[in-house]
Specification:
42% of the residues lie in helices and 16% in strands. The protein is an alpha/beta fold and 240 residues long. Helix 1 (24-38) links the parallel strand 2 and strand 3 (45-50). Helix 1 packs parallel to helix 3 (77-92) and helix 3 (77-92) runs parallel beside helix 4 (109-116).
């Protein structure tokens, strides 16, 4: 379901469950792999990609959501919401650089997971990233809206969450939330090379992850009650 390899300082996590639809079993499998990655020491970075040539992740496992008793292997339906959101938070604040190589469609929860990474690479010739909740009759939960608000430029935010825009790789790169696009044959290698460049930032794991928590966690600097000018003028009121 999830394959993990390591080459030097770069771990590569390959989602290998067909369309990589999200259910509780899938969430827990990824969480276990992250435990293994996080148990390492020293410089390191994580690349996430998919084994499927068409889908990075096709979103929620809707068949299971609608009839969980018919798909017992997908796991506990009641546990899914909090465990999925917790996993997204974990990826967002992971204690080493994370690069997502989006080599196919990334819809809904798949798009969320890509945005939780530090850096995104995307296939240039095919595949979309899309928050498709409104298209399938769902509303976007507030924590997910906050993720999109943090990770997308203002000009792309409304188009994404309210108009369900489908972003191609080149369009996402132009909008500023994909760093690089490329051919499917070279995409993963390029993402791994970028991860190797970033890996030394994780030599001090607590510092790297701690700053992410200050960016995106409780009482985050970018969400603070006061503006940057006030904070700069009153640094004694802040812990860092």
């Amino acid at each position: 379901m999830i394959d993990l390899t390591r080459d030097g300082d770069v771990f590569t996590m390959t989602l290998n469950a067909g369309e990589n639809r999200w259910n509780t079993t899938f969430v827990r499998a990824i969480d276990e792999v992250l435990n293994e990655v996080e148990a390492s020491t020293g410089a390191a970075a994580l690349v996430t990609t998919s084994a499927d040539a068409k889908f990075f992740s096709n979103g929620l496992d809707l068949d299971w959501v609608q009839a969980p008793d018919d798909y017992p292997a997908a796991g506990d339906r009641k546990a899914f919401g909090p465990e999925f959101m917790g996993l997204m938070s974990r990826i967002m604040t992971f204690s080493m650089p994370t690069v997502c190589a989006v080599n196919g469609h990334a819809f809904g929860a798949g798009f969320m997971s890509a945005l939780c990474h530090d850096v995104r690479f995307m296939r240039a010739d095919r595949g979309f990233m899309c928050a498709n909740e409104l298209q399938i009759g769902l509303s976007i939960p507030s924590p997910e809206l906050a993720l999109f608000k943090h990770k997308l430029p203002a000009s792309a935010f409304f188009e994404t969450v309210q108009l369900a825009k489908r972003w191609t790789g080149p369009a996402a790169q132009s909008a500023g939330f994909v760093e690089q696009v490329g051919d499917v044959e070279t995409l993963l290698a390029a993402a791994q090379a970028r991860a190797a460049q970033l890996a030394p930032l994780a030599a001090h794991r607590e510092n790297y992850g701690g700053q992410k928590r200050r960016l995106f966690g409780e009482h985050a600097a970018i969400n603070d009650l006061h503006g940057a000018a006030y904070m700069l003028a009153n640094p004694d009121q802040y812990g860092h």
